[in-house]
Design brief:
mainly beta, about 0% helix
């Protein structure tokens, strides 16, 4: 598993984001972040998301555990 952390310039670390990339399965992003869909021009403020890496999800970019089937 590979872990990435992105720190904001805030003194209280409210802008910290952690990205976990396991050997298999979805990418897990946790923290205080905004996910933007440039194609649909939408954005969502989230605290945790699992992003599909296998391409089988019917709810892309989110994981729906299709990789387990």
């Amino acid at each position: 598993m590979v872990n990435y952390s992105v720190m904001g310039n805030s003194e209280n670390n409210n802008n910290q984001v952690k990205v976990d990339i396991p050997d298999t399965g979805p990418v897990k992003v946790t923290g205080n972040f905004i996910l933007k869909d440039l194609k649909r021009k939408t954005e969502r403020s989230l605290n945790e998301v699992l992003l599909c890496r296998c391409g089988k999800s019917s709810n892309k970019p989110f994981c729906d555990e299709s990789h387990k089937r």
